[in-house]
Amino acid sequence: MMKKTFFLTCLLIHLSGLICAQVRAPQLILQGHTSDVMSLVFSSDGKTLVSGSQDKTVIVWDVQTGKIKQHFKRHKGWVWFLALSQDATTVASGCYDTSDVFVWGARTGEPKHQLKLKVSSLAFSPDAAYLIGADGSSLSRWDMQTWKRDKLPAAHTDSIYCIAMARGENLMVSSDMSGGTILWDTKSWQPLQKTKLKNWVKALAFFPNHKKIVIGSAIMDSGSQIGGEINVWDLSQPSLSTLLRSAGVVWAVAVSANGKLIAGAGRDGKIRIWDAQTEKLKATFVGDGKLVSRIAFSPDSTFLASCGGEGTIKLWGIADLY
Question: What's the pLDDT band for 3 if we cut at 50, 70, 90?
Fold first, then answer.
């Protein structure tokens, strides 16, 4: 009964959003990976994009030319997780299956350090002094000079799947596979706020003013992922608002740097974009129907990058949506 009601709800939402669907061509397609692209991140100046793939490699791209600047090939497994330092000089890339994390120079392609650890997410502190990683239900912090590891206070009761660092603020958010979501003070490393979803949280994104967090998740039923949901956690409110309930699991969420747009994507191959203030759907980009695993807005908020099941990275023009 739960599945039937859920899919009827998803159908109504789908039909109501058809008028916003757009078949538009990406302005640039980056080709260099030979298998599904699972992770991507922009540099803070928007000139560089880094992507990780099931082909076991990481590519550093020049966004303006679309050319490859570095092609890192040291991993032995799928590259699921990426972090890029604020100054775009250092990349951390992780393989969950082979328990490998490499920290390397974005400009040189040379390894700086290797960790033998099965991490599920990575992030640099804003000053790049520390690398933060999730290992099971624990969070750890590594000093980038000494590589001393400090375990952070235990707060999650299930395996952490994703973390997100706030730019320019001492805040981080982490979520686990049971829906537990925690906002951290990264100076004291004490939890500030907590919320709980019934879903497996797959993706997190801060608003630029740090007052809200977008949460993308998989709706679970008897251990199966039967759909997806996108919620907005207003940190001043006790409850979460819902942007989307979909038959496709949500893998990725993002908020534009100007705070005006929210984007979400996942298993159904569609990229949906909402007005961040009204939470009304503005557009749905229909690609080739394959999985969209990650999305990211450019720092100037004029492009949205997406990657997924076809081995390419697409850059979509979105200036007309403002």
Answer: low
* First and final C-alpha spacing in the chain: 41
174-188: per-residue pLDDT in tens? 999 999 999 999 999
- Contact (CB, 8 A) for 238 and 286: no
CA distance 285 to 140: 37
Give exposure, 169-205, as e/b (b: 16+ Cβ within 10 Å): eebbbbbbbbbbbbbbebeebeeeeebebebbbbbbb
Please compute Rg for the chain using Cα positions.
Answer: 18
CA distance 271 to 268: 9
Q: Which of 20-29, 147-156, 201-210, 283-292 has the lowest mean pLDDT?
A: 20-29
Domains in the chain, CATH or no CATH each: 1-31+197-322 (2.130.10.10)
Cα 228 from chain centroid (whole Å): 15
Report helix, strand or coil for 11: helix
